[in-house]
Amino acid sequence: MALIDRIKFDASSDDILVWKFPSEELKLGSQLIVNQSQEALFLRGGKVCDLFGPGRHTLTSANLPLLNKLVDLPFGGKTPFAAEVWFINKTVKRDLKWGTPSPIPLIDPTYNYPVSARAFGRWGLRVQDSRCFLLHIVGSQMAAGSAKVLEYFIGEIHQRFSAALAKFIHEEKTSVFEINVKLNELSQYSAAAISPELARFGIELINFNVERVSIPENELAKFQEVSGRRMEIEQISKAKVGQAYTTMRTFDTLEKAAGNPGGGAGALLAGGLGLGVGVGAGVPLGKQLGESLSATPDGEQDTVRRLQTLKRMLTEKLISQEEFDTKKKAIVDAI
């Protein structure tokens, strides 16, 4: 195999993040050309050795000090040696897409309801530390190309985002069904959780945006059905409470009227309620109350009606003779 005397990488696309020079048979005196926004690293035995920035470099044992220690390169000549050369693209990539491959199971903090959610967005990165990046890439056996490298980072994003989303809705007390109004806050919160993990690989997270959080249609329909039933139950519960309140206020009114013997209703209620009279006993109490409450203190006709009512209660043994005489006297005295 011919020895290489010119080492260069002209990327066909800026999407390529990392690229390995196809030959490992090199020689001293070769020209290494590193384009702008690139860095070139030499590896030997899985160890990251020397790094070169943009420019034209003539390879000598002097500018390959770390590799020289491993290979024992001689001075001068066109001595051949074996090493891997990796080119790292350090341009910023902002328009990378991400999305959860499967729904994230959550418990909605507002409705205390189990629900799943999916999320989509865009993110950007830049290789900040080429040595750290390449060391982890080679160590993780991800030397197949940029697509597999990005696939690995997308996996890390999915894992960190899932945990961040669950913590965000819990800490912010935000419903999953209303989370889309807080996408900016969620994006910043998630970026803070994801950034340290990428930094471990020498990657700088440039941007991380959550563009949409969605709930599967079948789960949304089920929630709407359950929510509708819950509202019906709450309305029924409120109606029962309202009915009980009305009943209590009615009895409060009756007790006050019974404590006022001079009033039209007092004559009847003091006797009727005192004896525990209920609806359905003798002449209906509701009718008697209506007659008594509608009566006025003045007028012979009203007085006669009140006395007749009192007489019926005595006849039907709803009140005693003594109570009849007392109430009768009160009605007559009020004329």
In a nutshell, what does this entry contain?
With 335 residues, the chain is α+β, with helices and mostly antiparallel strands. The protein has nine helices and twelve strands. Mean pLDDT is 79; it is low at 267-286 and 292-297.
How would you describe what is shown here?
- The protein is an alpha+beta fold.
- It has 4 domains: 86 residues, no CATH class; 123 residues, 2-Layer Sandwich (Tetrahydropterin Synthase, Chain A), CATH 3.30.479; 32 residues; 75 residues, no CATH class.
- It contains 9 helices and 12 strands.
- The strands form 3 sheets. Strands 1, 3, 6 and 7 form a 4-stranded mixed β-sheet that branches. Strands 2-8-4-5 form a 4-stranded antiparallel β-sheet, with helices on both faces.
- The radius of gyration is 45 Å and the shape is rod-shaped.
Cα separation of the termini: 134 Å
Annotation field: number of helices: 9
SSE string, helix = H, strand = E?
EEEEEEHEEEEEHHHEHHHHH
Name the overall outline: rod-shaped
Q: Architecture of the largest domain in CATH?
A: 2-Layer Sandwich
CATH superfamily of the largest domain: Band 7 domain
Range of strand content: 15-25%
Rg from C-alpha positions?
A: 45 Å
**Helix share bin:** 40-55%
* Stretches with pLDDT under 50, minimum 5 residues: 267-286, 292-297
- What is the count of distinct domains? 4
Mean pLDDT: 79
SS content category: alpha+beta
What fold name stands as the CATH topology of the largest domain?
Tetrahydropterin Synthase, Chain A
- Quantity of strands, as a count: 12
Indicate the CATH class of the largest domain. Answer: Alpha Beta
The major β-sheet equals: 4 strands, mixed
